[in-house]
Model the fold of this input.
Amino acid sequence: MKLQNDLLIRAAKGEPVERTPVWLMRQAGRILPEYRAVRNQLSGFIELAKTPERAAEVTIQPVDILGVDAAIIFSDILVVPEAMGLPYEMIEKKGPFFPQTISTDADFKKLKKADVASDLGYVTEAIRLVKKELNGRVPLIGFAGAPWTIFCYMVEGHGSKTFSKARRMLYQDPMMADQLLQLITDSTIDYLKAQVAAGADIVQVFDSWAGILPPEQYKRYSLSSIQQICDAITEVPVTVFAKGAFSARQDMRHLNCETIGLDWCMDIQNSRRLIGENKTLQGNLDPCALYASDAEIEKATQHMLDQFGQSRHIANLGHGVYPDTKPEKVKVFINTVKAYSADLRAKAQV
Amino acid sequence: MKLQNDLLIRAAKGEPVERTPVWLMRQAGRILPEYRAVRNQLSGFIELAKTPERAAEVTIQPVDILGVDAAIIFSDILVVPEAMGLPYEMIEKKGPFFPQTISTDADFKKLKKADVASDLGYVTEAIRLVKKELNGRVPLIGFAGAPWTIFCYMVEGHGSKTFSKARRMLYQDPMMADQLLQLITDSTIDYLKAQVAAGADIVQVFDSWAGILPPEQYKRYSLSSIQQICDAITEVPVTVFAKGAFSARQDMRHLNCETIGLDWCMDIQNSRRLIGENKTLQGNLDPCALYASDAEIEKATQHMLDQFGQSRHIANLGHGVYPDTKPEKVKVFINTVKAYSADLRAKAQV
Done:
């Protein structure tokens, strides 16, 4: 089905757009009362993610309520390790917790490559429902965690400031680290291909813990897996968002992907120079800017748009929207992107 | 008193040294059984920091046991907000916690500039004891938190992945943020001057949460306070360690300080290019490298020394040594720095 609003896809491919497309990481969930109403009917986050009808419902909510230019499937990056044989819990206000972790060869041998059809069918089913319901209004973004980030949770077992247990394996058992990363990478490729087959119009890889590795290790243990994913996904555009990967920006210009996400601490001009002109950049307003007055949000958003310029940009925050952000403030951001970026282009044509 | 081993001071000033000096952030405490023996006699971390005789004892331990080229006074960056009127607790395995935080003007008005003589005399007393006991063997490093990092804890009340409450104030009440940062800066300058008067041979400013601000906010809300501190401390060399401040490196070349610390994720060559030749660089081995075999630690340390080159470098980890690191592994790192850096210089003279 042809998309009615394909701004995001055109911007990703570097084609001309009438205005800058805009969406928010974590737009499905957290901040919307309509989301909390759905979630409160279920036992929690994981049950919601595993119930395709409800996952589809909360995926579409921000399209209707906020007016974003894309939906992103409501799910979680940690469904992949679960499908590999490592179940997890989501502990309210604390985050994910894996009762078992990977530290020995015996632990590793218990894992399997994710069988997407049998173990992650609830995600592809939700994608099919969303596509049907959206009926071509906006594109649907599929996603997965980068193998390094998934590795962090599988070895550490929970969030951490340093992930020193996960990083320790890179020094103590680099062979096992390579094997585990490859199994995650293979699972992730199958998973993203299934999302695309189910209807995802573009996919994003989230490397949330990119910022904790020294540059040489980042290349070897993370960028190489991301490269495999980018090379494997040929049907739709790919976006790579590696939070905190300052030192890797120059290498990311060689990734076989269309879009690179910038976090809110990355300087825009410098990132463009390092990444080059052949990628679309996505981001990167400070999520805390949405705590400001409407006038200040408009100013900050316009300043961001001025810095990115009018080509090859997808507007977003530089991090997932924070849970206590007011939806009205998100709308100010979205509406400013739409109006100001259209204005800039109209002026440029005079 | 003249220092017998003044390698650290000469390296900081850019003077020639026979070999690269080496010390570790968090060397006093955590990893040494001798430290835990002292600490277990007291009620906890804060009591230890406030008991000058015992603080002095654990400050000197790593000089004797590990053979580092400097002592760093055993204390905590959060003694400054406490002296400003905001007491805190150190919760085992969780970190610092402030029962009261700063969010309104009324909260701010309750604060005062720290009275160093009356409220932080235990630190200067510990410094005097250490200096007497060290008897000129190695230099003593004094330290304080950067005002932005202290601000984070005073507003947020505890550690956080995003410090979104602290960052929110920059958008919602920049005037109060400026006032609070100035009060912290003034207190910190007095505090560091008192440390120098008591005998500190060099001081380091730790900006642990430098990495969570967008570049323009980092300049305005953090670098400006650090600059005031650097300008005020004229008696001894100053080191600035701003963890995660990737985008600020070019601006840091203009700081009125001798040494810039690099974290383990900062590329060495690129950092040297951005910071310039007129600063000493300190760091930056990945603390997780000390989990490796002795041979791998030697290799990684030599690789680091090769990258920094032979002038204007102080060897260190790129982060505080992690609590579960074995002291023998720390010794491998220290001994490799000493031997290999002396060798490199000897070879260069042939």
